[in-house]
Structures are given as structure tokens and as C-alpha cells.
């Protein structure tokens, strides 16, 4: 479910909840979500000003083709297709990936599995991941400006700590603003 939260100062804030996505070319829209072990991929083509965000819960795909956007494969394919339909060009697509925290120490590392899936999927599709903030133990609130690709992150429950990159190669994070 996508819920417009507020309008003010000519900006519209749209929240993407678990198992959903949103795509726009409206420069006044900010897309936001809150993540724990889930992943959000922010996909954009800055030249055309088209971008979007998804929010998936589980790596891979469900048991049938009708499974919903809780699964990474469905969420990624739909996001890519909708961004392209909105006018983005595949050769210019770039991604920023967030989430994948290990919120509960004694549980299976679902967040790590989700993070590896997202990075691997983007590599297979030939879409560069230009920034990532993955892993750690804290939830994140993400604000994404889809027409420019700018992103802000707030780690919830304290001071921002270092996040581990998945895979171990750390990508540049200079265009992510921590707030």
C-alpha cells in the first residue's frame, strides 16, 4: 500500500510499505520507507528524471508466478519495468540499495541474504549500484528523491554506525546524506 503522508512546500511525500513500490517523474515527490532486514532498491535515470523505490521482505522468488512483491525477484522486475515504462532508458539506470540489517542476533540472517540477492540481481541485469548502505544492526529510514537520485538515510535507535557492505567490496557512499 502506498500512502501519501503529507503535502507542504510543494513537496509530496509518498511512503512505500513492505511488498510495494512507487515510480514517478514528479520532481516534487519524495519517496520514503523504513527498513530493518528488508531491502529497498532506489532506481533512477537522472537524465530523464524518472525514478522509483521498492521494498521487499525476502530474497528470491515465491513458489508461483502469482506471488506478490514481498519477494525480491518480483519486486525488482516490476520496479525495472515500471521505471522503463515511465520513460527511463535502461542504459542509464542506476541504483542505490538500502537495508538488510540483522535486527535479531540469534535469528537467521535474513537481512544479509536479502542484501546479497539485491546486489547480485543488479549485477546480472547490468544496472550499476552507485551507492549502498547494507547490513549493521539498526533499522533505517530512507528518503529518496527519484528524479535526481539523491538519497538520505537516518539510522534508527541511536547514533549512525558503520554499515558493512555486501558484498565485501565497499561502493562509494558520498552521494548519500545522513540525517
Explain how this protein is built.
This protein is of the alpha/beta class and 179 residues long. It is 17% helix and 36% strand. The strands form 2 sheets. The chain has a 6-stranded mixed β-sheet with strand order 1-2-4-9-10-11, with no helix packed on it. Strands 3-6-5-7-8 form a 5-stranded mixed β-sheet, covered by helices on one side. A hairpin with a 4-residue loop joins strand 9 (140-145) and strand 10 (150-155). The two termini are 26 Å apart. Mean pLDDT is 83; it is low at 1-8 and 158-174.
- Tally of helical segments: 2
Which class do the helix and strand fractions yield? alpha/beta
Coarse shape: globular
Return residue spans where pLDDT drops below 50 for at least 5 consecutive residues: 1-8, 158-174
Please estimate the helix content.
Answer: 10-25%
Mean pLDDT: 83
Give the termini separation. 26 Å
Summarize the biggest pleated sheet: 6 strands, mixed
Question: How do you describe this structure in short?
Answer:
This protein is of the alpha/beta class.
List the helices and strands and how they pair.
Blueprint: E1 2-8, E2 11-16, E3 20-24, E4 29-35, E5 39-45, E6 50-55, H1 72-85, E7 94-99, H2 110-125, E8 129-134, E9 140-145, E10 150-155, E11 176-178
Parallel strand pairs: 2-4, 7-8, 10-11
Antiparallel strand pairs: 1-2, 3-6, 4-9, 5-6, 5-7, 9-10
Amino acid at each position: 500500500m502506498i500512502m501519501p503522508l503529507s503535502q507542504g512546500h510543494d513537496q509530496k511525500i509518498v511512503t512505500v510499505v513492505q511488498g510495494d513500490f512507487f515510480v514517478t517523474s514528479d520532481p516534487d515527490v519524495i519517496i520514503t520507507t523504513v527498513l530493518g532486514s528488508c531491502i529497498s532498491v532506489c532506481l533512477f535515470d537522472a537524465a530523464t528524471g524518472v525514478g522509483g523505490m521498492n521494498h521487499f521482505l525476502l530474497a528470491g522468488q515465491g513458489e508461483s508466478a502469482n506471488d506478490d512483491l514481498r519477494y525480491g525477484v518480483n519486486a525488482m522486475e516490476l520496479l525495472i519495468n515500471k521505471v522503463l515504462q515511465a520513460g527511463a532508458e535502461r542504459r542509464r539506470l542506476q541504483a542505490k540499495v538500502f537495508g538488510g540489517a540483522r535486527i535479531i542476533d540469534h535469528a537467521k540472517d535474513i537481512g544479509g541474504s536479502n542484501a546479497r540477492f539485491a546486489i547480485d540481481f543488479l549485477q546480472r541485469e547490468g544496472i550499476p549500484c552507485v551507492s549502498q548502505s547494507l547490513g549493521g544492526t539498526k533499522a533505517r529510514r530512507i528518503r529518496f528523491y527519484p528524479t535526481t537520485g539523491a538519497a538520505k538515510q537516518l539510522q534508527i535507535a541511536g547514533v549512525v554506525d558503520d554499515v558493512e557492505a555486501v558484498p565485501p567490496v565497499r561502493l562509494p557512499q558520498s552521494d548519500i546524506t545522513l540525517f
